[in-house]
Each structure stands twice: as structure tokens, then as C-alpha cells.
Amino acid sequence: MKSSYDRIPVFVIKTGSRERDISVRDISLDHYFAYHDGKIVYSAYRPDVRWNYRDYSEVMMLDVVTGKLISFPAPPGTAGWVPNGFNLVSAISHDDQRIAAYAAIRPRGAGQVRLYVMRIAGPSGRAMPVPSSAAYLFARTAWSADGTWLLYQGPGGHLWAYQVTSGQTRASSTPCCRYTVMAAAPSRSG
Predict the structure, then answer these.
(1) Which of 71, 70, 62 is nearest to 21 (CA)?
(2) Alpha carbon of 168 to those of 52, 136, 160: distances in Å?
(3) Each residue's pLDDT tens digit, 85-117
């Protein structure tokens, strides 16, 4: 992303010394975004149409190849997507099928978030809540190497895993998410 104080932020592809504009970035409260395999995910600022003192973020996904922009509205009953939500998380699954993002839990300003998963393509772009994923702001996530398990901060600040295809969860006693990054790597067994 290329931005400055006197220019509108633009996503660019740089090849050698040449730059090609992909798309203008929506207005945002931050400059964070997630990138994986030709897809960019970020949060865009959206003012409330009726009440000017309220605002929220909308999750946006840009396909770098086609230029297609898809928006994911905040889940009903939440206070909206968390701005700054893509600086310390692995948002896009490694199989490029899903996005994970945090939404603020009401009452707004309490500092609590819940994790949601959305399908990028297919029948439903609706946000599905991840079980036992309520946490405080700045929680972390990571996808397994095959993109089928989502690792996240569960109850008590411990590492939990959620298998997206089956809805199965696994809890652990491992303290989680107090560090800057969380990464998943394939095991060496087998």
C-alpha cells in the first residue's frame, strides 16, 4: 500500500522499479491489512447513516488479480468489526477459502471481541461465530498450514482450535496470545 499525507492511499504492485495501481483503498482508521495469495483483507471506515456519533468498520477483500472488491457487513448484534484488526492476525486461510476477523461485543467500549469466520466464495459470505472465542481486544489468530483449523485465544487466555468444516473445537492448557505474533506450522511427525 502506498500513502502519504497529500495522496489517497492506493494498493500497488511493484515489479522492479515499476509500480502499478491496483485499487484505491477505502477510508480507514488504520493502515493495516492482511495479504495472502493475491487477496488483500482490510477494515474500512463506515459512518452510521442515521446517527453521526456512531461509526463502524466493514471488512473488505480485494482480489489483486481481478480487482474485485467484496464487503462483509458486521454480524448482527455486534458493535461492528474491530478497526486495527489485521495487524497481528492471520486473517486469510491458507486454502484461500475463508477469512477470520474480530467484531466488538456490546456494550461498545467494553473492550471485548468475538471471532467470526466468513467464506470468501460460495453460498454464504455471512459471518459465523467461532465457539468460545470471546476475548479482549488485540487477540491473535492463526490458520493451520492446511487451512482447516483456526487457532485463537479461548477462555482463560488459553490456546483453542476450531475446525471450520466440522465445527469441532479443541481446548488446551497452553497460555495464549500475549505475544506479538502467533504462527502455525506443520508437525514433523508421521
Answers:
(1) 62
(2) 41, 23, 11
(3) 565 566 888 888 888 888 888 776 677 888 999
Residue with cell 522499479: 17
Averaged pLDDT for residues 17-33 = 67
Return d(Cα 95, Cα 118) in angstroms, integer: 13
Residue 116 included in any domain: yes
User: What's this model's pTM, rounded to 2 decimal places?
Assistant: 0.74
In a domain, residue 40? The reply is: yes
Identify whether 182 is part of a domain: no
Give the number of C-alpha atoms closer than 13 A to the C-alpha of residue 54, restricted to the C-beta side.
8
Q: Which residue has the cell 495479504?
A: 35
Are 111 and 136 contacting, i.e. CB atoms less than 8 angstroms apart? yes
pLDDT tens digits, one per residue of 67-91: 888 888 888 888 878 766 565 566 8
Expressed as residue numbers, the domain containing 52 is: 8-175
SS3 category, 152: strand
Does residue 64 belong to any structural domain of this protein?
yes
What's CA 73's distance to the chain center, in Å?
A: 13
How far CA 161 is from CA of 5, 29, 99, 174, in Å, comes to 41, 30, 15, 11
Q: How many domains does the chain have?
A: 1
Number of CB atoms found within 10 A of residue 39's CB: 18
